[in-house]
Amino acid sequence: MPINIPKQMPAREILEKEKIFVMDEERATTQDIRPLNILILNLMPEKEKTEVQLLRLLGNSPLQVNVTFLHMATHQSKNVSKSHLEQFYKTYDSVKKYYFDGMIITGAPIEHLPFEKVNYWEELKLIMDWSRDHVTSVMHICWGAQAALYYHYGIDKYELPAKCSGIYRHTISDQTVKLVRGFDEVYFAPHSRYTSVSREEIINHPDLNLLSEGEAGPFIITSKDEKHIMITGHLEYDTDTLAIEYQRDIKKGLDIQIPENYFPDNDVNQAPVNTWRSHSHLLFSNWLNYYVYQETPYEQDRKVKVDIPAANDIS
Questions:
Q1: 234 is catalytic
Q2: Residue 176 maps to a domain
Q3: From 101, 140, 158, 217, which residue has the greatest number of CB atoms within 10 Å?
Q4: pLDDT (tens digit, 9 = 90+) per residue, 265-293?
Q5: What are phi and psi of 70, to 5 degrees?
Q6: Does a structural domain hold residue 224?
């Protein structure tokens, strides 16, 4: 799926070197197809890294995708330049009149805070409420998944005795569900968090389905109406992301354990091996195809979506 992003975006050069199909906006306008319009609410502090990780996974299908990045107006980011946000990001007020085929809400390293203490919680609630009738399907990642479970379904997070960090085995409860079509019976995925959610509350909730779980607890949760996909880990992570986080925590003087099942022989001097890449691509491809593209009526959306400007043109 060629992704349509601004020419000047730093992620573009990285993706092109990886042979990810990135389309010029000029070429995109000449194709007689309706592109998918995907909104990404990027809550991660190192936004440029997350941009590359998500765009890489969105660029692996035969259709065209227009991507719009969103940041919180009520929060000042410390790890990305103001000029980057001004050039490549929008705020809720500038997109709220539009409709989107899909939306991704990322994680954020703020699990230690109660949701109501997060300085942009009210704005996030507004966006999640807006998404109910302005977005066909929403994928929530890590803290974003916990926020969705709390806001939409009343399931709160709880603190773990120690940080859950590493690569963990997972199984699937129902192989016929379209989101995990093609998955192996056992697969691996990264986790990096200090909190979790209750398995019992999820399986007992009438509107939720626990699709996949493993050594790190519940992993893939879907709403019964398939409107919300909640991923408690980080399938989008690069091979070295957990290593970078581990070294960062060590430098901060935190009492942190080596990520589990990650470094060969638990030797931090050895390069980790990526065991989750194929399932990362498969998950995003299935989501885009079955939950976004297949669920979005073409003619209806031409009236409200086809004329959405490119990400750097929305005002």
A1: yes
A2: no
A3: 140
A4: 999 999 999 999 999 999 999 999 889 98
A5: -125, 140
A6: yes
User: Domain count of the chain?
Assistant: 1
Tell me the C-alpha to C-alpha distance, in Å, between residue 20 and each of 17, 23, 93, 277: 8, 10, 31, 15
Question: Is residue 163 a known part of a binding site?
Answer: yes
**Structural domain contains residue 201:** yes
Quote the tokens at residue 148.
């969705």
CA 11 – CA 272 distance, rounded (Å):
23
Catalytic residue chosen out of the listed positions 170, 234, 245, 279 = 234
Q: Which of 142, 164, 170, 205 is catalytic?
A: 142
Q: Of these residues, 48, 51, 213, 236, which one is catalytic?
A: 236
Question: Phi and psi dihedrals of 203, rounded to 5?
Answer: -70, -20
Given a cut of 90, is residue 19 above it in pLDDT? no
Q: Is 248 annotated as contributing to ligand binding?
A: yes
Q: Does 49 carry a binding-site annotation?
A: no
Domain limits for position 57? 3-157+195-239+277-304
| Per-residue pLDDT reduced to its tens digit, 165-196 | 999 999 999 999 999 999 999 999 999 999 99
Read off the CATH number of the domain in which 117 is found: 3.40.50.880
Task: State the pTM of this model.
Answer: 0.86
More confident residue, 9 or 23: 9
Q: Does the active-site annotation cover 236?
A: yes
